[in-house]
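Figure S4 source data
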Amino acid sequence: MRTVEGEEVARGIMNEVTIIGAGLAGAEAAWQLARRGVEVRLFEMRPKKMTPAHKTGLFAELVCSNSLRANGLENAVGLLKEEMRRLDSLVMAVADSVSVPAGGALAVDRDLFAQEITNRVTVLPGVTVCREELTILPEQGVVIVATGPLTSESLAEHIRQLTGEETLAFFDAAAPIVTVESVDMDKVYWASRYDKGGADYLNCPMDEDRYREFREALLAAEVHEDHLGLDEGEATKGKVFEACMPLEVMAARGYETMAFGPLKPVGLRDPRCGRTPFAVVQLRKENAAGSLLNLVGFQTHLRWGEQERVFRMIPGLERAEFVRYGVMHRNTFLNAPRVLDGDFGLRGDPRVFFAGQITGVEGYVESAASGLMAGINAWRRVQGCSTLVFPETTALGGLARHLAGSPTGDFQPMNINFGLLPPLGERVRGKKEKNSRLARRALNALEDFCSGALEDFCSAGCQEVLRIEGCLSGDDLATIQPISDG
């Protein structure tokens, strides 16, 4: 495949963007580009070739819940929605227009939602919809790949060759994540096995009585109905699924199976008493700030309420705040920290961007948000501008930086949460008040970003600047970091 050099793109030679996939991310990216006068070729293989989950050929079809989750600014996804509204998001405008009563959440009529998204995109000047499957990326022009977790096998193979053999995973086995501030530090200790490297793991020690009680609760807990859709024999064929074994399945294999697996205590002597526990649950930092912790090896089929009940039996996690629950389902996503920059561009090929769940974001709103950011940066690429990373204090920027800069070697998809944003730098009493201050800071930073950053980092000949109405004012401004074209 021919790779276009950054300087060639920067001269504005490429004036058309190809988008592959018309889901939430692809439709949002098309909207952001076409509204700025860029010609768009939007490829969608449905309805000619359907996926196992989709039922129609409509854009942005919601295949699971009809809920876009919480709407209030004290919730991270509510903040993300508000940031997107202020950036003229198509997905948010349509969702607001076809919403249905759902308490504090934003839920939509899924049929009206998909139909309206389809209508608004297809009538945009400069948008050409191509109802066919692409099995390789176009060799010329700027491209946004937004094919989602159900990317066709042929295109997935092409992407794997483009990015590297180990950059795609086909089973998503995500363990729960908790906030570090919700852990009772008097009951846990930092250490690495055999003291190798730094003390990078937070260890929750169990004596045998607690281990037995935990295993019994785990085995008795209610699980989700199987939704992996595995072919017969696939659960035992190949190392991928075996490595993603649900914790409750492991517990059922034998009394000490977990203690010889993810709860293995060897090399983890408790420095407070000098003894090695019967079992140890390890928590690993999930983000660079160290504000989030991953329960290592705790992929599970348990229902979310059961995860809270059972996993809070772990010493130190009695009051744990869960920002993501453990899930297991078939998925396709990039190892984003290895292959993507914070502008959603592919490292080594400045004309290729990725958006949506294939990047490793999780959730409807997050997918659309990534499409918004990729669309804006693809527009800037076409115009010869440096691409931009949104301020890290915004929900948009926090999401992008998690993808590009996660320190974990086994990167997994994640929803937006306040743990992805830098802390306030001051102690605030009450979770709601803390989150409200984080939201105010984010909207202030977004206002400054929109009113100056795009123009400041735009090269000659690129004059259009986003004009955002109604942003809050404030002094807490973010430092904007452009991504070079080279």
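Figure S5 source data
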Amino acid sequence: MENKIITTQLKALLLETRRVLELADGLHREAGLSRGKVSLNDYLSDYHQRNLACRRGGSYDSMIRNMEKHLRQCLGSDFAALSVSEINTALCKRFASYLKQAVKKTGEPLSQVSAHHYFSAFRTMLGEAVADGLLTDNPATRLRKQELPKRPMVMKTYLDAGEVARLAITDCRSEVVKRAFMFSCLTGLRLSDIRRLRWQDIEKEGDCWRFSIIMQKTQEPLQAKLSSEARRWLGDPQREKVFPLPVNSTLSRILRQWTAAAGIAKNVTFHTARHSYATMALSAGADIYTISKLLGHRSINTTTVYAAVVDTQRDAAVDSVSSLLRQHLDEMTESLLQTTPFPS
């Protein structure tokens, strides 16, 4: 009875908190409209701080900084006087065109991957400006596909089922790193979400175990079933967090030592586990749409790169069957030549 009262009180508190946040958000948006012109420089500074405070990790923060650097170079003297409300389709085209031809400090051309990511960050920022009432719509979304920085097809490093199995039976000097990596291979969770996973995020519904989280990168909810093999790597609930991992530098060093001990020569990072989960699932027959949902991708286009990897595997399988058949045909032909008498 007492637990029910506490639960009801917590629900009431959460509801009241939500109302306060909605009110504050509404006032914030109204303030944005009433301010009229907000300089792009000021808005970028505010956007940067907001992302640091509540949205994403250091890699996204770095992307915003690089996007801003290239935007300043693209606009030159126009940047200082530009307000957010003045950003239009022409300016978006100008920035996209600049990124396609931009060069780094070394004089080398900016990679297609970087150009694509920087424009995506720019488009996301303009989407936030729409939500803040500074733009009526997002002009970056009006660009045609051929006007955007091309998104290259990158073949991601992954482990096949045999390599994952080898890691499972290979000793690792950190038990928690091994558990976390294997768990990611079986769920596809990102490192950021593995670090934040708590025991209370895992629930049993009848005979089925599930995890339910808010992904750090996208702030979107993700819920999925936990297989019996994935549950095996959870360990015992001794702390609030399921995987109390070391800092990234230590984690990377342990991974390199562990994969080397398993005889795996690939450049394995923790994110390789996520790629491995996707390719193993596709190889096992899961469709792209399902994998996209399991990985928490916003767009199915993000998932299609794994299909290319699996297609490569299928091509290799076709070639191997052909080679095997050719080997047997050659052996049979040689045998026939040895046993068949030639006319004198």
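Confidence is low (pLDDT under 50) at residues 1-6, 20-35. DSSP finds 14 helices and three strands in the chain.
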